Amino acid sequence: MTSAGPDAAVTRGVRLGVDVGAARVGLAASDPDGLVATPVETLAREGDLAGAPVPPDITRIVQEVRERAAAVVYVGLPRHLSGKEGAATEAARGYAGRVAREIAPVPVHLVDERMTTVTAHQALHAAGRPGRRHRAVVDQVAAVVILQSALDTERAQGVRAGERLTVPGGTAMQADAGAPRRGEEQA
Domains in the chain, ordered, with CATH? Predict the structure, then answer.
């Protein structure tokens, strides 16, 4: 699924990739030409998303967006293998919404991340990293997989990947019209 809208055309600039987990958040970045995704760091997930202060992990993402002058942030959307959405999907949408509010007007796009953690573990295993040491970096590697997939889609289709989140009136989050929601199948 690709998005339409004012930021749909791919322009030069760093892209960030975010893998949202219950305990940790992986962060990856691309070069300004959007060719290669590289790991940045793993953040401890902290704070209540509904609370007033910005949690430290989201503050760190905001810092990266500003320091790198990021053009877009891609957040992984964990759907079931069938394409349906569940509790983890809603949690990722909520997290992405909070990030979008904090970094506006930089766009946030949700991209399908099915199997990224499995792919990340396989890549770490293939690189000779023992399984017990995966936890520290698997979220970063998953963020790299999410971001690289989005970069590949950008090159192939000439538009930003995924479903763009918008911040109408600077508050409530809504997905682009036509984007699949909970219980809907992808076309």
Answer: 15-175 (3.30.420.140)
